[in-house]
Every structure is written in C-alpha cells, then in structure tokens.
Amino acid sequence: MTGKTQTSNVTNKNDPKSINSRVFIGNLNTAIVKKGDIEAIFAKYGKIVGCSVHKGYAFVQYMSERHARAAVAGENARIIAGQPLGKCL
C-alpha cells in the first residue's frame, strides 16, 4: 500500500441530495483509462468522495455541486486515450 487514501467506488446513486455533485463521463475508453487516471484528471476540481468506472463510462462524486460544475466546464469534450469524452453531465 502506498499510503494514499483510496477513493470509494460508491457514487451515491440512491441519494437524491448528492445527484448534483455527481459527474457522468461518457465515451470513455476503459480498456486503457482506469479509475486512478479518472481521479487524477478530475481531482483538480475538488475533493472526490467516490469514483466508479464501468465499460465505456464513469461517475465521479464530489463533495459539492460547485466542484462538479467546475469539472463539467473544464473537462467537457477533453480527449483522453485518443477519444473525446462524451458530454459530462
């Protein structure tokens, strides 16, 4: 273990209060891009409390809606692993 705190895989999908602080990342090449990569890219916008990666997409859960909105504005259509990210919501 590297001593780095690991982010939860939980993105509060059942918590209606946290929905506005969750970011959907589409068109993600998950054969190449892993959870740690997503966390490294999106951590600059605020504290990530959860990150879940699925085939072709991911969710990042922030502490606040403000952080999620900053991530959407900053990363929409960014190219990662040769693919432009789908609409971040």
UniProtKB/TrEMBL annotation:
Domain of life of the native organism: Eukaryota
Keyword match rRNA processing: no
Domain RRM: 21-89
Family annotation (InterPro entries): Nucleotide-bd_a/b_plait_sf, RBD_domain_sf, RRM_dom, RRM_HNRPC/RALY_subfam
Alphabetized Pfam families for the sequence: RRM_1
Family, similarity comment: Belongs to the RRM HNRPC family. RALY subfamily.
Classification via PANTHER family: HETEROGENEOUS NUCLEAR RIBONUCLEOPROTEIN, RRM DOMAIN-CONTAINING PROTEIN
Designated name of the protein: RRM domain-containing protein
Species of provenance: Gopherus agassizii (Agassiz's desert tortoise)
